[in-house]
Amino acid sequence: MKREIVRIDEERCDGCGLCVDACAEGAIQLVDGKARLVSETYCDGLGACLGECPQDAIAIEKREATAFDPKAVEHHLANMKNVKAEAHATPHEAKQNPACGCPGSATQSIERSEGAGTGAGPSPSLLGNWPVQIHLVPITAPYLDKAKLLIAADCVPFAFGDFHQKFLAGKVLLIGCPKLDDSNLYKEKLTEMFKTNDIESIEVAYMEVPCCFGLVRLVGEAVEGSGKEIPVTLTRIGIRGQVLESNPLSLKT
Question: Do 165 and 112 meet the contact criterion of CB atoms below 8 Å apart?
Fold first, then answer.
């Protein structure tokens, strides 16, 4: 459908952030120092941000665009509020008020006996933490301190049959989808997570499909934004279930 929607001239944009504050729907965020429209569904096209831009970098144009979705905006704003609240919460507050009000999302460390999965019979789970979805994991979850993180695209465990034994043993798991989830919010949350906790290492397990590389990008940006030197390993998984490559991430590239 054709409708009116925001257009941002990135060459003119100086990253002042005034348009971000002016957008009540949270449709505009700063990404890599520039204002970006994070989702067409969040922009109502009314242009409240127009008069706030000192560089005249924002305009309204009529073009093919996804329909404005008020319910998606409501969910998006709630997510943003949760991320900001977690970033400023004390450890006690974070423990008492997890990212989701659902009791099933209460933070837990799961004890596993030594040698689990080495005997005959079905392989047991090696999951050592709950919750695992990036949005639901509190920034100050106790199991993040001194953690060896495994950040996996949520298709990886289904494609790689020996996921628990190969990747999960001794790791704290976080999962997300860089294509379907709000990657900008994930980047903000991971940045605060890395700043707040003493993370020993990170392995990013992602699929070979092009859209999944977004997970690599946002983790790299979050590490860089944290100001810490955390070793990151990138492991690419093929859709046929094989490890295609495993290499360290260079933040200089």
Answer: no
The boundaries of every CATH 3.30.70.20 domain in the chain are: 2-68
- Rounded-to-integer distance, Cα 239 and Cα 228, Å: 33
Four-way CATH pick for 101-110+125-248: 1.10.10, 1.10.3470, 3.40.50, 3.30.1300: 3.40.50
Residues β-bridged to residue 34: 31
Q: Which of 61, 49, 53 has the alpha carbon at shortest distance from 23?
A: 49
Give the C-alpha separation, 32 to 23, whole Å.
19
Q: For each successive 10 residues of the chain (253 residues), what is the average pLDDT?
A: 92 89 89 84 89 89 92 83 62 49 68 58 84 89 93 96 93 92 85 92 96 92 92 96 92 50
Q: For residue 111, what are its two tokens? A: 């004890």
pLDDT at residue number 129: 92
**pLDDT score at 114:** 55
Supply the pTM of this predicted model. Answer: 0.61
β-bridge pairing 148-153 and 201-207: parallel
Question: Does domain 2-68 correspond to CATH entry 3.40.720.10?
Answer: no
Query: Which H or E run contains 217?
Result: helix 213-226
Q: At what angle do helices 183-196 and 70-87 cross, to 10 degrees?
A: 10
